[in-house]
Design a protein that fits this description.
60% of the residues lie in helices and 4% in strands. It has 203 residues and is mainly alpha-helical.
């Protein structure tokens, strides 16, 4: 995630480095399990798109709930909330536009590696034939919203890594992937070393 030196002008502590390696090993193991399940559900990835066998696609079509049945099963209060949830598309699109412009303008100046939007936002669920039209729309909306927020978090995380790589005094939920590299709260010397290292690396 960018060509930065290790913070504080030194390598991460052995214990932290070992824990990070364990987490990454578990992530690799989790991805292997996902691959195993892909085989279990008879699909493969071709150019990033999931492809099912023909008999599986027919089974999926048979499992699809009709749109009329889907709507009739919905509770009235759920239907009434539809304008509220879909109105969130406005701040989502604004966030998408502004944060993309921000990194396009600022990251080259800060010499931060840009975040690839396509690595966070994908619309592959629309290819599932057991979803009706409205379910596909809802899945695309959720994919966009959650993918966009993850994309924004990564941009913000790289920005924080560049300008203020200091851990918080208390434990925070939802920490981004770069947080473990930050200097400890209260480590003034470490922060000054980090600031100098970042400055030297981005001259």
């Amino acid at each position: 995630m960018g060509n930065y030196p290790k913070f504080g002008g030194r390598e991460l502590s052995d214990k932290v480095a070992i824990l990070v390696q364990r987490v990454r090993a578990m992530e690799d193991e989790l991805e292997e399990e996902f691959n195993r399940r892909r085989n279990q559900f008879n699909y493969r990835l071709e150019r990033g798109r999931a492809v099912f066998e023909q008999d599986v696609r027919r089974h999926h079509e048979a499992m699809k709930q009709s749109l009329s049945s889907y709507l009739s099963d919905a509770r009235p209060l759920v239907v009434l909330t539809a304008p509220v949830i879909y109105a969130m598309i406005i701040p989502f699109v604004l966030l998408d536009v502004f944060i993309t412009i921000y990194q396009a303008v600022c990251f080259p100046i800060y010499r931060i590696e840009k975040v690839k939007r396509r690595n966070f936002i994908t619309f592959d669920r629309k290819h599932l034939s057991y979803l009706n039209g409205l379910e596909k729309l809802n899945c695309m909306y959720c994919s966009y919203g959650n993918g966009l927020l993850a994309y924004a978090v990564e941009i913000a995380g790289r920005t924080e890594k560049h300008w203020c790589p200091i851990k918080h005094a208390k434990r925070m939920e939802g920490r981004h992937a770069h947080y473990h590299e930050f200097v400890e709260f209260g480590d003034a010397e470490g922060f000054q070393r980090t600031k100098k290292a970042l400055h030297d690396a981005t001259k």
